[in-house]
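Priority: medium. Attachment 1 of 2:
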């Protein structure tokens, strides 16, 4: 009798070992080896802390555990534990308003990777990170072909003259009223000047000529009654009728000067040449007839002050998922 019972038990165990099992149902799904069905109760996974979970020796791919530290379900993907609540894999990056590490998300604050957990250090190494975490402060995410996790560039730029358009700035200087300009010209050596004066209208000249030595004079016609002929002193009177010619003697020529006055009947000019025997300068004053302006050309100048090119932004923290 005992032998029969042992045989039946072995057969039953064999059937159970190779058949589908249903709990709460007699017709489990063909794709499931085990199906739990209930409208009142659920399926409870093993529960443990994060320390206990990460201490599981050689976890199988797909092993699931409810982590009481993070209050979420975790599964092992063959390399790392994955938080199903975070729905993230190692290397994912996100922004958030959190200020500290949470649920496997590590703040990118430039800290030493050696300060992370053992599993997180392994995850960081697998991503090619070493030494310190990237410091994402004041940085913007960009795919520029650089090394992963590298921080480069600046939020400011300094323009140089070579960055400016090739233009000259021109304009008119404002005048505050009638004014004059004074300047001095410098001479590099002895020189002279030529020019022509411009008259303001009809005018006359008075002065005295200086004689450099003895000289004589020609004759002059004088319309006056004839007073007789003959030589008298420095001149002789020759003529008839009501007029005569007074002829000056050419040998009567001591050093002397002449005073004169010329009368002008029309406006006229005078040409002149000045000679110079030594270096000298000239002071000039330009008179203005009224308000006026001057054309000017100025350089761009500048003080090379950096320009802030950072756009308007929302302040958040950046995190990388390294697991726990």
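Attachment 2 of 2:
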């Amino acid at each position: 009798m005992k032998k029969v019972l042992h045989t039946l038990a072995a057969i039953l165990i064999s059937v159970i070992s190779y058949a589908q099992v249903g709990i709460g149902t007699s017709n489990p799904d063909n794709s499931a080896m085990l199906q739990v069905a209930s409208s009142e109760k659920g399926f409870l996974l093993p529960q443990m802390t994060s320390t206990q979970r990460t201490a599981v020796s050689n976890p199988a791919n797909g092993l699931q555990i409810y982590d009481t530290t993070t209050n979420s379900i975790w599964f092992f993907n063959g390399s790392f534990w994955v938080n199903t609540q975070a729905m993230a894999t190692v290397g994912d990056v996100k922004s958030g308003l959190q200020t500290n590490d949470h649920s496997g998300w590590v703040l990118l604050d430039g800290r030493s990777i050696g300060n992370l957990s053992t599993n997180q250090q392994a995850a960081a190494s697998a991503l090619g990170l070493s030494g310190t975490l990237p410091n994402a402060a004041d940085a913007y995410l960009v795919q520029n072909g650089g090394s992963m996790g590298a921080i480069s560039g600046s939020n400011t730029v300094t323009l140089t003259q070579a960055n400016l358009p090739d233009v000259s700035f021109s304009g008119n200087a404002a005048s505050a009223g009638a004014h004059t300009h004074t300047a001095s010209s410098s001479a590099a050596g002895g020189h002279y000047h030529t020019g022509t004066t411009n008259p303001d209208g009809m005018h006359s000249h008075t002065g005295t000529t200086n004689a450099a030595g003895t000289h004589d004079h020609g004759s002059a016609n004088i319309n006056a009654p004839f007073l007789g002929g003959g030589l008298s002193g420095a001149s002789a009177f020759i003529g008839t009728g009501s007029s005569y010619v007074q002829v000056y003697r050419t040998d009567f020529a001591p050093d002397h000067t002449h005073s004169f006055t010329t009368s002008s009947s029309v406006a006229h000019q005078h040409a002149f040449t000045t000679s110079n025997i030594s270096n000298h300068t000239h002071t000039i004053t330009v008179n203005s007839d009224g308000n006026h302006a001057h054309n000017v050309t100025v350089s761009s100048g500048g003080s090379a002050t950096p320009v802030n090119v950072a756009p308007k932004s929302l302040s958040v923290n950046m995190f990388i998922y390294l697991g726990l």
